[in-house]
Amino acid sequence: MDLPDDLIALERAAEEQRAKLAGLDGAEYDAQHQAWRKAAQAAQAAITDYAKTAGEPRSSVEMALKAAVRHTREDPAE
């Protein structure tokens, strides 16, 4: 599935915010959790919109997107 760059960027941003939760607690955790939720909600809304527009099952779009983000994060050329 050919996914748009902006959709990949939103998912990557959400994943980066989630990763920042590691090692935090208290107020720092709460603030970072809110940042992650906001980024994740934006990514999820974009996934839904793209799936509707492309006529693809939402779950297929989400799975392809997560695979694309993981692939680009593991690519040593990136």
Low-confidence spans? none
Please outline the major beta sheet.
none
> Helical residue percent?
over 70%
Structural class: mainly alpha
Number of helices: 3
Order of helices and strands: HHH
Work out the strand percent. under 5%
Distance between the termini: 20 Å
Mean pLDDT: 92
The total beta strand count reads: 0
Overall 3D shape: elongated
Radius of gyration, taken over Cα atoms and rounded to an integer in Å: 14 Å
Task: Spell out the key features of this protein.
0% strand, 78% helix, mainly alpha, elongated, 78 residues
Structural summary, described in words:
78% of the residues lie in helices and 0% in strands. It is an all-alpha fold. It is elongated and about 40 Å long. The model has no long low-confidence stretch (mean pLDDT 92).
List the helices and strands and how they pair.
Elements: H1 5-19, H2 26-54, H3 58-74
Helix pairs in contact: 1-2, 1-3, 2-3
